[in-house]
Amino acid sequence: MYSPTGDIADYVQAVWFASAQSSGESWLPCDGAKGVIFLLSGRLNLAGKPLNSPYFMQTISTQSEKVTFTAGSVFCGIRFKPAGLAHLKKVNHSLVAPATLTGLAQALDQYANLDSFIDFCQRTSMHQKYTIRLLSTHKN
């Protein structure tokens, strides 16, 4: 997981990437925010509902939700701060445009790793006021 810096940090909490060696489950804490999840391979369920490609927009989280995944699942996402996604949509930021999100999913299908995901996110927001600049250290 990486946390953005700069102007976009007011709207984006994190850019993250996960690869499951085995089947499992985890609880996602509620934080009143939204996110986008890209399922690149395997199966992924959020609160008992399957997520489909190319991407899934999470609703506002008001309670913790269980995510379950199969062995070999690869998925990643962007977690916005509360009201962050709404603001980026209001200013027509390219990062949250449906065509951009579909393009990210397609690009990730060929180059699935955190560094590629961060690079793709940076490139899509380069011409915008709020660009993504990420810390160079991992967060757990």
Give the SSE map.
Layout: E1 4-5, E2 12-19, E3 24-28, E4 35-41, E5 44-46, E6 49-50, E7 56-58, E8 65-69, E9 74-80, H1 84-90, H2 98-110, H3 114-125, E10 133-134
Helix pairs in contact: 2-3
Per DSSP, the total helix count is 3
Q: What is the topology, as strand order, of the major beta sheet?
A: 2-9-4-7
Total E-strand runs: 10
Distance between the termini: 7 Å
The Rg value, from CA coordinates, equals 14 Å
The portion of residues forming beta strands comes to: 25-35%
Helix content: 10-25%
Low-confidence regions: 126-140
Q: Would you tell me the structural class of the helices and strands?
A: alpha+beta
Largest sheet: 4 strands, antiparallel
Report the mean per-residue pLDDT as an integer. Answer: 81
Overall 3D shape: globular
Strand/helix succession = EEEEEEEEEHHHE
Give an account of the 3D structure.
The protein is α+β, with helices and mostly antiparallel strands and 140 residues long. Helix content is 23%, strand content 31%. The chain has 3 helices and 10 strands; from the N terminus they run βββββββββαααβ. It has helices at residues 84-90, 98-110, 114-125; strands spanning 4-5, 12-19, 24-28, 35-41, 44-46, 49-50, 56-58, 65-69, 74-80, 133-134. The strands form 3 sheets. It has a 4-stranded antiparallel beta sheet, covered by helices on one side. The chain has a 4-stranded antiparallel beta sheet with strand order 3-8-5-6, with no helix packed on it. A hairpin with a 2-residue loop joins β5 and β6. α2 packs antiparallel against α3 (114-125). The N and C termini lie close together (7 Å). Residues 126-140 have low confidence and may be disordered.
